[in-house]
Amino acid sequence: MMIRGYVATILSTNLDLGMEIGRKLGKLHEDEATKIFYRKREDHLLSVLFPTGLPSRLVEAAECLTVSSSFFLRLPDSPKPEDGELLLLSEASGIEGSVIASTQVAGKLLNGTSLAGKISQEVKEVSYETPDRGYIAVDKVFQVRGIGTVVLGFSSTQLGVHDRLLTLPQGKEVEVKSIQVLDEDQDAVGPGVRVGIALKNVRQEELRGLYSMVKPETKVVDSIRGKLVKFEWADYSPGMFHVVSSGSSSVASVEGQGEVEVRLNRRLPFSSRFLLLNLNARPKKPRVVGYLEA
């Protein structure tokens, strides 16, 4: 049977609290700056991402969130401003999720947000259908002796051996030679799965800077026109921002008020929602500005 799955992201400024949630949901397999926990049941794979190093790695946390179907926001008993930023990031994502915190702490912070009804004192595993968006978000490229160039990432599409993909930013067409999930060969995988993809007749150096691979029919954009939904606590004026979607990010110029024009420094798979971050926000102002509805 073809493996399918879904991806969830843990958001927490506290390493121990985040790791506690991860261990309840799965087994730690990749112990790097972004921790990855897995739980496999028959033909279904749950992948849980925990981007550590917050608040400095806010862009990486947003990238994890935009490749996920759900989130777990863990608030400490004494929240700080950076915890409020993660709350805004969760709100901006538009995906399902839960807030793990005491009712007293969370009630005050979440008042007036869409997360107010999602408070829980315990971690409950949930399963969401992962839609097919036609791309693979890539986080590693390396060479394996006897196999060739291998790409690691998360599938947001159904993928099979011999499928052809276009690489970003190169725009190079590549062919899937083989697929592995948790070191087991697969003929095909569904959306929401952590995959290792061996590519045919392409060298690692040809894929320098690779961040995404898309199906030939997938729409890719270098500019966006849409509605800016800004959080009332954030500052906004036209200028340079980080735009995040589909597990990738780009520096971008944003012009206008309400209806805005966005020019990306690098192409991204099209999405109906793009997160907007200002890493140079004024002191005491959140770096999560809001989101764009395209």
Give a written overview of the molecule.
The chain has helices at about 15-25, 60-65, 80-95, 105-110; strands spanning about 5-10, 25-30, 35-40, 45-50, 70-75, 95-100, 120, 135-145, 150-155, 160, 165-170, 175-180, 185, 190, 195-200, 210-215, 220-230, 240-245, 250-255, 260-270, 275, 290-294. It is mainly beta and about 290 residues long. It folds into three domains: about 5-120, Rossmann fold, CATH 3.40.50.300; about 135-215, Translation factors (Elongation Factor Tu (Ef-tu), domain 3); about 220-294, Elongation Factor Tu (Ef-tu), domain 3 (Beta Barrel), CATH 2.40.30. The two termini are about 35 Å apart. Keywords: Elongation factor, Protein biosynthesis. InterPro entries: Transl_B-barrel_sf. GO terms for molecular function: translation elongation factor activity. It comes from Sulfodiicoccus acidiphilus.
SSE topology sketch:
Blueprint: E1 4-11, H1 15-25, E2 27-30, E3 34-41, E4 44-51, H2 58-66, E5 70-74, H3 81-93, E6 96-100, H4 103-110, E7 119-120, E8 135-144, E9 148-156, E10 159-160, E11 164-168, E12 173-181, E13 184-186, E14 188-189, E15 193-200, E16 212-214, E17 220-230, E18 239-245, E19 248-257, E20 259-269, E21 273-277, E22 288-293
Helix pairs in contact: 2-3
Low-confidence sequence ranges: none
Percent of residues in beta strands: over 45%
Query: What oligomeric state best describes the polypeptide chains here?
Result: single chain
Instruction: Say how many strands there are.
Output: 22
Mean pLDDT: 94
N→C terminal distance:
36 Å
Biggest β-sheet, characterized?
7 strands, mixed
Q: What shape does the CA trace take?
A: globular
Give me the secondary-structure category. Answer: mainly beta
Number of domains: 3
- CATH homologous superfamily designation of the largest domain: P-loop containing nucleotide triphosphate hydrolases
CATH architecture of the largest domain: 3-Layer(aba) Sandwich
Strand order of the largest sheet: 2-3-4-1-5-6-7
Give helix and strand order, one letter per element, not per position: EHEEEHEHEHEEEEEEEEEEEEEEEE
The tally of helices reads 4
CATH topology of the largest domain: Rossmann fold
| Helical amount | 10-25%
CATH class of the largest domain, named Alpha Beta
The radius of gyration computed from the alpha-carbon positions, rounded to a whole number of angstroms, is 19 Å
InterPro entries: Transl_B-barrel_sf
GO molecular function: translation elongation factor activity
Protein name: Translation elongation factor
Keywords: Elongation factor, Protein biosynthesis
